[in-house]
Amino acid sequence: MMPLYSVSEEVYPHEYLWRAATKVLEEGEMKEHPSFHFLLPALLTSYMAYEAFINFCGELLLPQIWSEERKHFKGVGIEGKVDAIVKKLSPFTWHKGKNPYQQIRSLENFRDMVAHGKVQSVRYVTDEREGRPHIQFKHAWDTYLTGNGVREARAAICSFCEDLLVEARKSSHHPHLLAPAFKGVLASAACVENAG
Questions:
Q1: Between the CA of residue 51 and those of 36, 78, 85, 137, 138, what are the distances in Å?
Q2: Can you give the pTM of this predicted structure?
Q3: N or C terminus: which one in the chain shows less Cβ crowding within 10 Å?
């Protein structure tokens, strides 16, 4: 008879999401002028990786609260979750009004624009170019979707998450905390052979 094993497995969504965003951004940067077709998913997925990282830290550091996540964080968004983690990591200093956090916070507007997909209606006066009215098709998300903008946002996410990670190591010995933010393994598992 083949032996049976008890397996304890963890998959880290923030690692998968960050790598996916990195790959999409790298594809977009191969072009002379990166297209929003690459920049939009790269930035959105980077923000999703940030949210997943915050949830990873919360589950690790505050498992009781995260087991009832909806009860504790209804209506407070990701900032409420970060606040709970920061309180746990006291004396961690959260410079809420400064970068890198403010840059990450502004990304929440971008995330909402994309996630909720509301039509943006505008009216404007334009001139004529090449015998036709110059139609612009601008969207509020355009301010986020530049190569430099996406890279700077990702750097802010990394910086803030790395600061949290350094403090989290003082409260937990979880092996995934040993790697820099977004550079850890994708998953881990431990197996024990079941006794007869």
A1: 22, 7, 13, 30, 28
A2: 0.89
A3: N
Q: What total of structural domains would you count in the chain? A: 1
- Domain around 188: 5-193
Q: pLDDT tens-digit profile of 120-147?
A: 888 888 899 999 988 888 888 888 998 8
| Dihedral over alpha carbons 22, 26, 27, 32 (to 10 degrees) | 150
